[in-house]
Amino acid sequence: MKRHPPFIIFISLCFSIILVAGPVVSRSFLKKSIASLPAATNQGIQPDLLSTTAKNFYVKTLSGRVIQINFEKAREHHEYIILHFWGTWCVPCRNDFPAFLEFAKRNQSPNLSIAAISWMEKGETEEEKLQNIRSFINKLNYNPKEGPPPVYFFLGDDNLGTETAKHYGLGRFPLTIFIDSEGKIVKRITGITDWNSDEMKSLITQFISGKLPPLKPGTIFDD
């Protein structure tokens, strides 16, 4: 029988060990790597940096007036708020928005405010944004003066916009945020939603009754 040099036997043995143990080591390393990643990252936003408390920010009306979404005033009036972030550049948003408008019309209540906030695409000017919104909602026969909901667009992608995006974890659209009368974020819904479902009707009842607990810090998206 032909004898192999010791170093060849050693290399063969090492290669065999790698073949057997390699996949196990790789899976273990991959599992640890995945476990160390945040639950979701959007535009570099880390889950542990997100707040569960609503923060005031500015928007523009379709008439060009700058207003503040003010949660201190909302608390004074024991008001519940639903913010629907969307964009005319976002295909899922455009598909979802007509049903959201009908949802808003059905759920008019003295202690519930619903606002649709159209987020500007990067590089889009305010004039372009305004024209895009008007063109889109006109096709839906929506009159912003009659409402609800009021339709606003965000001021832009400046520092204020970046801070607001980070605070609310804006990265995937459409995104709907439910804020209770204490200014606490109690629900986040991403993607196209069945706004007429029994589940949604039950959610709204619980929401305006104050029965939804605040989200835990680090919670990002609800499926």
General description of the model:
- With 223 residues, the protein is α/β, with parallel strands linked by helices.
- It folds into 2 domains: 37 residues, no CATH class; 162 residues, 3-Layer(aba) Sandwich (Glutaredoxin).
- 39% of the residues lie in helices and 17% in strands.
- It has 6 helices and 7 strands; from the N terminus they run H-E-E-H-E-H-E-H-E-H-E-E-H.
- Strands 2-1-5-4-3-6-7 form a 7-stranded mixed beta sheet.
- The longest helix is centred in the N-terminal third of the chain and has 31 residues.
- The termini are far apart.
SSE layout and pairing:
Layout: H1 6-36, E1 57-61, E2 66-69, H2 71-76, E3 80-86, H3 91-106, E4 112-118, H4 126-139, E5 151-154, H5 159-168, E6 175-179, E7 185-190, H6 198-208
Parallel strand pairs: 3-4, 4-5
Antiparallel strand pairs: 1-2, 1-5, 3-6, 6-7
CATH architecture of the largest domain: 3-Layer(aba) Sandwich
Strand order of the largest sheet: 2-1-5-4-3-6-7
**CA-atom Rg in angstroms:** 25 Å
How many helices does DSSP assign? Answer: 6
Distance between the termini: 65 Å
Number of strands: 7
How many strands, which pairing sense, and closed or not: the largest β-sheet?
7 strands, mixed
Which quaternary structure do these chains form?
single chain
**Shape call:** globular
CATH H level, superfamily name of the largest domain: Glutaredoxin
Low-confidence stretches: 7-49
Which band does the percent of strand residues land in?
15-25%
Q: If you average the pLDDT, what whole number results?
A: 74
Reported by name, the CATH topology of the largest domain is: Glutaredoxin
Helix content: 25-40%
| H-E order | HEEHEHEHEHEEH
Q: Into how many domains do the coordinates divide?
A: 2
Q: For this structure, what is the CATH class of the largest domain?
A: Alpha Beta
Helix/strand class: alpha/beta
